[in-house]
Amino acid sequence: MTTGNDYDPSREGATMQFDGRMSYGDYLHLDAILGAQEPLSDAHDEMLFIVQHQTSELWMRLAIHELIAARKAISEDRLQPAMKMLARVSRIFEQLNSAWDVLRTMTPSDYTRFRDALDKSSGFQSWQYRLIEYVLGNRNHAMLRPHAHRADIVSLLEEELTRPSLYDEVLRLAARKGVEIPTGVLDRDVSRTHAADDGVMDAWRVVYEAPETHWELYELAEKLVDFEDYFRRWRFNHVTTVERVIGFKRGTGGTGGVSYLKRMLEVELFPELWHVRTVL
Predict the structure, then answer these.
(1) What is the DSSP string of 71-129?
(2) What are the contacts of 37-43 at 24+ separation with CB within 8 A?
(3) What is the pLDDT of residues 143-154, one digit of tens each?
(4) CATH architecture entry for 42-279
(5) What is this structure's pTM?
(6) What is the pLDDT of residues 223-257, one digit of tens each?
């Protein structure tokens, strides 16, 4: 009888030779991924800092994939797959939230040992994060400037600004479903951030006061609120982690650090979905 220590999977047909065959590492390009951590100092915790941010960028890549697909599905009235995708994005941001717990094991003393090596690099320069915000509707044109040195990234972000945001598509869907949305909102310049509108809040009030009549819109609205809830927590955890590690020092990229991040906490992605709760 074999034990776990001497078990040979090949006896049950497992492939053990990969000359000329695709392996797990080949499929996932693990050599490239695991070779991408290049600390610039001899500080032990720099590896943690790099892995934390690289894995966050991978999760954001998936979030972008899901959000863009969800937006397309909503524009085509395919709500069930869209809601599944939005639920997945909420889980992605749950993972991103948990990652802060790992980074918070780094103390201020740990961070100061390699902070100078970062030079002017900073998380607010993440083009993927910017793309997520643009897809969601927070379309701050000033944030194109940190990417001016990369024409390809600027082009990608500018192209996104020509498209309706996820929330724009949701409001267009509501209009198609017979809920009255102000014409000025439907015809607005989509390259700009949507401003809270009383007419849109009235529309959501109609949905929330009769969910049995507007069930799909009601369920979709709650999926958006779920997501923004996780997104807000992610921003809040970012603030508290930064304050815990560097206090109120300026960020490496020149921002006010904690003060800049706290300002971002005030941003509402789907404002009427939050405001309508007050008038129900």
Answers:
(1) HHHHHTT-HHHHHHHHHHHHHHHHHHHHHHHHHTTS-HHHHHTTGGGGTT--GGG-HHH
(2) 39/114, 39/117, 40/114, 40/117, 41/113, 41/114, 41/117, 43/110, 43/113, 43/114
(3) 999 999 999 999
(4) Up-down Bundle (1.20)
(5) 0.91
(6) 999 999 999 999 888 888 888 887 766 556 555 55
